[in-house]
Amino acid sequence: MATTRSVRLILAPRSAVYRALLDPNAVRQWMVPDGMTSQVHSFDAREGGAFRISLTYDAPTETGKTSAQTDTFHGRFVELVPDSKVVQAIEFETDVPDLRGEMTVSYELRDVPGGTEVSGRHENLPPGVSAADNELGWRMSMDKLAALVETG
Predict the structure, then answer these.
(1) What DSSP line would sit under the chain, residue for residue?
(2) CA gyration radius, the chain
(3) I want to staple 43 with a disulfide (CB 3.0 to 4.6 A). Which of 51, 63, 97, 123 is the partner?
(4) Which of 78, 87, 82, 77 minimizes the C-alpha distance to 42?
(5) Distances in whole angstroms, Cα of residue 1 to Cα of each of 5, 64, 102
(6) Distance from C-alpha of 15 to C-alpha of 139, rounded to nearest angstrom
(7) How far apart are CA 53 and CA 91, in angstroms?
């Protein structure tokens, strides 16, 4: 199982970044790669709380994990450390064996000159998920997270 990582400087305080990680409206805006639309079905931002999100391709495709157009995943919050860390366990909703299995997504926040360093780690990628595509998605999402919190 592969692991991908992303590190991004965000020109905003840790508290603002942390809030955006746990606000369903913010998540809908930033946790989506380019060329996709996000829908947050449920989102209970507390340790043990569950969430369910769908990402739908804007253009016709056959590459969705749940359906031809959509990747739907569900999960739970494993650990929340205010203004410092978010750990989630997630799993795609799919019948494809190579796309199944629980993954761990972690965000760690630390103060750096000028803002917050966000270190993201996506562990236990199923064999059917391209590490390169996952890293690209991370970069796109982190850029959107930065744009969202830097503009207030």
Answers:
(1) -EEEEEEEEESS-HHHHHHHHH-HHHHHHHSS-TTEEEEEEEE--STT-EEEEEEEESS--S--SSSSSEEEEEEEEEEEETTTEEEEEEEE--S-GGG-S-EEEEEEEEEETTEEEEEEEEEEE-TTS-HHHHHHHHHHHHHHHHHHHH--
(2) 15
(3) 51
(4) 77
(5) 14, 20, 11
(6) 21
(7) 11
Domains held by the chain: number: 1
- As given in the structure block, the two tokens for residue 150 are 């830097």
What is the domain-level CATH number for residue 61? 3.30.530.20
Distances (CA, A) of 92 to 4, 118, 139: 17, 24, 20
For residue 146, the enclosing domain spans: 2-150
Tokens linked to 18: 């942390």
- pLDDT tens for the chain, 152 residues: list them: 799 999 999 999 999 999 999 999 999 999 998 888 999 999 999 999 999 999 988 876 766 677 767 889 999 999 999 999 999 999 999 999 999 999 999 999 999 999 999 999 999 999 999 999 899 988 999 999 999 999 87
